[in-house]
Every structure is written in structure tokens, then in C-alpha cells.
Design a protein that fits this description.
This protein is mainly alpha-helical. It has six helices and three strands. The two termini are about 25 Å apart.
């Protein structure tokens, strides 16, 4: 059975740091997030504890400090979050998602080509 990570927006920020580079100590994660979030090390520690409870990150003891690394794979978390968003907001309708995207922002020529290629691939798989 697949793990349901249920990652919050704040937890995503910590995980992104760990996906970019790991293992990292609390101080390093705090420094990476300081400018964007203004979080103190206590706030980052709270996010780390939540991610540990969800078993999304692991811990290794390095001397007198702890380092953290991702257990949850980025692709798995992205897929799960996308499915959850599609369920909650668009009633599992991919077409409703794309209609909304087309109505709310301009889509570049390159993005359109990528979507067309994806549609061609999906049709071949049927």
C-alpha cells in the first residue's frame, strides 16, 4: 500500500530543501529557508518533527547533531498532491483543470506543443 504523505505547504518547503541536497542539519535547512520564510530554527524544527511523524524524512546522528534526509520521493509526493488537488477542486476532471488554466493564464507556444505531444502519446497508449 502506498504511503499517504499529506504534505502541508510549509512541509513542502522543508522537503524541497532536502530533495535538492541531503543530508542537511537543522541549521542548514533554516539558513536555506530564512530569506523566503523568515522562519526561526524552532519553526523549522516543528516542520521536521511533523515530517518525521509522517515518515516522510529520516534522521541520522552525526556526532552531536542530527542530519535529515528525504524518505518520500519527490515524484511520489507530486503525484499524490496532484491527484488530491484534482479530486478536491476539479472532481477528477482533467479537462476542467485545463479549461480553468486556459481561462486564467496565457499558455506559451512551447507549453501547447508539450500538451499536444502528451495527448498524442496518450492516444497511442489506448
Amino acid at each position: 500500500m502506498k504511503k499517504n504523505w499529506n504534505i502541508s505547504d510549509s512541509e513542502w518547503l522543508v522537503l524541497r530543501c532536502l530533495w535538492k541536497k541531503s543530508p542537511l542539519r537543522l541549521k542548514e535547512i533554516t539558513e536555506m529557508l530564512k530569506e523566503e520564510t523568515g522562519w526561526s530554527s524552532n519553526m523549522v524544527r516543528a516542520m521536521i518533527v511533523r515530517l518525521q511523524e509522517k515518515q516522510a524524512i529520516g534522521t541520522e546522528c552525526t556526532g552531536h547533531s542530527y542530519s535529515y534526509y528525504p524518505v518520500a520521493k519527490e515524484a511520489d509526493c507530486v503525484k499524490q498532491e496532484t491527484e488530491s488537488f484534482l479530486d478536491r477542486v476539479f472532481e477528477r476532471s482533467v479537462s476542467k483543470l485545463f479549461v480553468t488554466l486556459a481561462d486564467t493564464r496565457s499558455i506559451s507556444e512551447q507549453e501547447l506543443e508539450e500538451l499536444e505531444e502528451l495527448i498524442r502519446k496518450l492516444k497511442k497508449e489506448e
